[in-house]
Design goal:
By secondary structure, the chain is mainly alpha-helical. The protein has one domain. The longest helix has 31 residues.
Length: 246
């Protein structure tokens, strides 16, 4: 565990060393929350204290996904600088390296998304202590899943220029299919079908259910789906790190 914690701590220091990255990481979620949300709050989706309150869990999910994937770019950079090879020739086990990198991305995404919570009272969301604790747990679980998926996607790439283009191409559809901006119950059948295979849909619904006590997907099903994605992606990361051509 100490080796895993050391990897997480190293990546966290890199994250906190870039305050502009933290600041600009808030820009996109806040634009969705206060600009898009304000423009569309008179629509039919205003179910809980207005449309902005309704999309808040989706905005948190957006922040978690994009920050976790942005953190995954670090492993592509580590390959270019030789740091990844240094880790691989060290006495650390491949599972420890995989767990450390997944945990680091998750902590970075979770910490970045925490900065959105102080804005919740401005849109009519009251966070009691029990509800806050459940939300933090749901965010942490989703962050682990998104971090593992981001690393599984990042490891085949050797260019920090190509990977962001590919990841954004995949992340935006994941977000728009997640139900973060609209109820999946009102969406066309093909969108509901696609959302069933979207990990973000389960994470967003879990966080929304914690805030509203209204789940579109059974909580146990959401937890199971995220757990399956986390285990599968974690296995891919560990297996990929074990290959000699890394």
């Amino acid at each position: 565990m100490s080796n895993v914690a050391a990897i997480i701590w190293f990546d966290l220091k890199r994250f906190w060393a870039s305050p502009l990255r933290i600041l600009f990481g808030l820009t996109q979620p806040l634009l969705y929350l206060f600009v898009l949300g304000a423009a569309l709050r008179s629509g039919t989706y205003a179910e809980v204290s207005g449309y902005q309150a309704y999309i808040f869990p989706g905005v948190v999910g957006l922040s978690l996904m994009f920050t976790a994937t942005s953190a995954a770019i670090g492993i592509v950079h580590d390959r270019q600088t030789g740091l990844l090879n240094a880790l691989l020739v060290s006495p650390l086990g491949r599972i420890e390296i995989a767990a450390g990198k997944i945990g680091a991305g998750a902590v970075v995404a979770w910490a970045q998304s925490l900065l959105l919570l102080p804005f919740s009272p401005a849109i009519g969301i009251g966070l009691t202590a029990p509800r806050l604790m459940l939300l933090l747990c749901a965010m942490a679980f989703a962050a682990l899943t998104f971090s593992a998926l981001g690393l599984a996607l990042a490891l085949p790439f050797r260019s920090v220029i190509v990977f962001p283009v590919v990841s954004n191409t995949l992340l935006l559809p994941m977000f728009f299919l997640s139900g973060g901006l609209y109820p999946l119950d009102l969406a066309p059948q093909w969108i509901r079908f696609a959302a069933a295979y979207d990990p973000a849909a389960y994470g967003v619904d879990l966080m929304r259910g914690v805030l509203t006590t209204q789940f579109s997907i059974a909580p146990a099903q959401s937890v199971a789906a995220l757990a399956v994605c986390l285990i599968a992606a974690g296995w891919i990361v560990a297996r990929r790190l074990s290959r000699r051509d890394v």
